[in-house]
Amino acid sequence: MTTAVTPFQQIVQQTKQALRLGVLVPGDRLPTAKDVSETSAVNPNTTLKAYRELEREGLVEPRPGQGTFVRRTLGRPETGTDSPLYGELSAWMAKAAGAGLEQEDVAAMVASALEKQYATGTTTVTGASTTRSTGE
To answer: Which pTM does this prediction carry?
Structure first.
């Protein structure tokens, strides 16, 4: 079962992903609503709504006459595209593709593993169980 993701949600999720991976860093300027509309056929008001949500979360800030800028990142060193974990994940993805799995197969496996790993509020690290903080 797949759930449709609205353009608003896509913009918010993609921006957060870029913040987590270090693609966007504090000080970066986000594309204008007009630019997003021209490249993706998303209504400019949808983009502005997404930017307001990101602002509400303290991730971006509008600067009148200049645009919308990243205030803070969600990234941690271990989540960057140059981290060892990312390299291991990329290697695993290549192995899965080599085994004939399609993108949807891999997405289902990853979603299942994520749910299993994080569902109980604990994570297992080398056999030890630790309680995970849910506060930000």
So the answer is: 0.65
